[in-house]
Amino acid sequence: MNIVSAEFVKGIRGTDSVAYDGVPQIAFVGRSNVGKSSLVAAITNRKNLVKVSNMPGKTREINFFRINGKSYLVDLPGYGYAKVNPIEKDKLKKLLNWYLTDSGVLPKMVVLVLDVKVGITLFDEQMIEVLRLKQHPFIIVANKIDKLSQKELSAQLKEIREAALGAEVVPVSSTRKTGIKALSAMLFA
Length: 189
Known about the structure:
- By secondary structure, the chain is of the alpha/beta class.
- 32% of the residues lie in helices and 21% in strands.
- It starts with 5 loop residues before the first strand and ends with a helix.
């Protein structure tokens, strides 16, 4: 799909009409610092659309981006490690859990983003359990493939696929835009 328009709609921290307006949602979830925001920027081909940071835990709201006026890309706060105080960390965890388990929102697709070098962590395994329990359709994106040699990448992808228990795994590099076209085709099909 050719993205002709992408705009930030709003960031929410709980119940808000934007989450329930009937527009299909594609939600991006993953540990802090795996490149969720960079991936949204790469998919939309708009560097300034999303605030990208090297500091883990920068996304502290559920951010909605309208794509071609027809769907939302939803950038969720990261889980696991984040450079925020414990109270804020707990709020982010509750916000993430609310969106995926209690809000009643049914995303068209959830994109679980991993750092390919790290693979599937315990936090990711727990997220996969939640996604399966709530019957959210999801794919796993192994991001940052440009950071590994071909041999290392092949080994890591094999491990990730085994741990993913049948979930589709898509290798990408949001910085070099490798695999972004194929990922976009899957998300907007």
